[in-house]
Amino acid sequence: MQVSQQINARWIIPIDDANSVYEHQALIIQHDKIIDIVPQKNLSAYQPKEVVELNDHALIPGLINAHTHAAMSLLKGLADDLPLDEWLNNHIWPAETALADEDFVRDGSELAIAEMIKGGTTCFNDMYFFPNQTIAQVLKSGIRANIGAPVIDFPTRWAKDLDEYVSKGVAIYDETRDDALITISFAPHAPYTVSDESFKVIQPIINELGLTTHIHLHETAKEVEESIEQDKESPIFRLKRLGLLGPDLMAVHMIGLSTDEIKLVADFGVHVIHCPRSNLKLASGICPVDALTKAGVNVALGTDGSASNNDLDMLSELRTACLIAKGESTNANTLPAIEALKIATINGAKALGLDKQIGSLEAGKQADITAINLNSLETQPVYDAVASVAHSASRSQVSDVWVAGKRLLDNYKLTTIDEPEVLEKAAKWQEKIKQFHHRSIKAV
Amino acid sequence: MQVSQQINARWIIPIDDANSVYEHQALIIQHDKIIDIVPQKNLSAYQPKEVVELNDHALIPGLINAHTHAAMSLLKGLADDLPLDEWLNNHIWPAETALADEDFVRDGSELAIAEMIKGGTTCFNDMYFFPNQTIAQVLKSGIRANIGAPVIDFPTRWAKDLDEYVSKGVAIYDETRDDALITISFAPHAPYTVSDESFKVIQPIINELGLTTHIHLHETAKEVEESIEQDKESPIFRLKRLGLLGPDLMAVHMIGLSTDEIKLVADFGVHVIHCPRSNLKLASGICPVDALTKAGVNVALGTDGSASNNDLDMLSELRTACLIAKGESTNANTLPAIEALKIATINGAKALGLDKQIGSLEAGKQADITAINLNSLETQPVYDAVASVAHSASRSQVSDVWVAGKRLLDNYKLTTIDEPEVLEKAAKWQEKIKQFHHRSIKAV
After folding, report:
1. Residue B331 has what DSSP assignment?
2. How far is B188 from chain A (nearest CA, A)?
3. Does A201 share its domain with A243?
4. What range does the domain containing B42 cover?
5. Cβ A387–B279 below 8 Å, yes or no?
6. What is the least distance, in Å, from the CA of A312 to any CA of chain B?
């Protein structure tokens, strides 16, 4: 049988229930799909148009960044070492209000997508203004994305009121229905920026279109305290009252949950998106990954935006997740290497409702693949490829990336994005944003 | 005046009390020393033999890894996701007993040094058997090191009893007295593996030679509990009774300290070496960096050995230190970017008693310098070079490294170590160690 591609790999870590690791096997791709994984000795059934030799490499499912704000890459390092409210109110929101127009989102998204592909991410879950611009960059680059249509109770450059947020969200959904690489969520920003009335307007639309919802939830202790003060209930209980809880909800952050709240999340099948580095950097708190997992909750992993992280490095994120989960649970066996890889791959796919298509390497799924070269000082010797990937490898060892069978990174080189051009654009934004920020800080 | 080298850099982060950042300046090197830092416009005083242009780069003082076991690089990934006692007793110590001979230490140290130089580390503080072999690799490679002469209350391949540990330690001190790149500590392994009697033997020798002491201390809650049970005092109070506390002591780990213990450390001027990733990975606990710093304690940073980390990446370590300190203190301003750079540079120099020679970029100090290329997707735009280095840059962006004026990494290439040869040796050890470990695990 003639097939598109055959990748010979030293290790294949498919991410399956048996925690398999295949050695010296080949992954067979036909068009956009994986159709087989077979021992390299036993390949007579296939005549590939292209053979890729990755004899020092581990193949893993493409990493899924389950929460980010791609365009904010242009703001990385603008304001650091500050708590969430000060960081948002005095730095990020003023900068966004002044500068985050369509061009900003276009160039910021492109910078982010370039960084993500080079770091082995094949799919990201975004929430930002001008999602149309992010979508254009997704299609141009060939990466996969779930795009959140933002809803927030104040006017922005993207929309002036709830009606416009909703109609623009629905329009984006309509426009992308035929794009295989794109799915759409509604993304109400957070409980403290979206009123009951607004939730009541968007919820029937989300249900009617069969979409998922992507929301910041329980990001800080302050958010939870103020909600209890104002509504006599924590934000997640408020969302329960509003009928939002269910397997279509992606709840991002979820720090410091009580036993009751963990049970609620488990009972309703809500997906939790864990952003450990952002939560630590803003000193927001820690998401109880061990307790959630033990309660049967699906926990996926996100980097958050680069302005609070300060990068989109999923290998670094999963490694920190691993360390923090052990520290938080005081158990060194919590979130072992293979489970850390799962939260960064299949669990993200489940959260997005895409686990039939992506999240593992198996016949019938999309060929979204990340290759990591383990033959380097940083990862030699290799006793266990899973441990090497989760505990030692860094993103500079990501050599090749495929999305839907298309090779977006070829031997460390981006194939669909002009890297020097992206850097030039970033330099231009740097001057503009720096000038604004200096004036703005002086004015405070 | 004729000088050896002139490095033109986009940014120089010298690490001084004023938290200076110089832009478009040049660093002037004469032989092994920095002799000046001057604006690039104003260079007429110097005629350099060599000019190095680093126009997208930040120069920082070479990173100081204040606690590691270099040779254990050959064991990275052998046993993961286990608590300290199980990891040591069932995996690491059996492997070391069977395999850690002179050849192991020679090749493991070389692998570690190669990884450290590529990651921007110019000096490391080591503790391991056969320190003579590590010293040989230090001299061969040109890196700087403080080498611990091990003392432990059981026989090893290195020494059969206390007398031999001591005499071999003194011999190493004598042999390296003229090596500018090497200093020596005594390294009693830990309170639970070294008796009062042994401490009483080594302490007068350490004092007489004017050496520092390097010890694992308060690494786990279990260690502290058992000490209280057995000696009616926590390990650090035991060391106080034995007269070991003082500015010549480097106490590594120091998790979960009480207020009294923090005061004790501060009163005696003990240096604390923080190893956040190792402590988290083994679920040992967290060192209270914020409280220690506020009490006036000098806190330096180490990666620990690769078998528990699993790398020797100081940029990643300082970034995790930053995140954990904010999380642990619930204050986003704790350990801001510049302070994170200090714990990885000048504070390490202070701990080693080498702050007159290294730890910052200033006239009169040794030319131990790390250059980081910030013109990459991962770190563009740059609003604040210090934030970019501490919160975004990864070690793959380290382009050049000098130790004592000698360029050990030249445009990403090691100049004193044959990288392919090191990888070949690691592959040979991998087979040997894998076979032993499989047999050993089956036997348990």
Report:
1. -
2. 26
3. yes
4. 2-61+367-411
5. no
6. 8
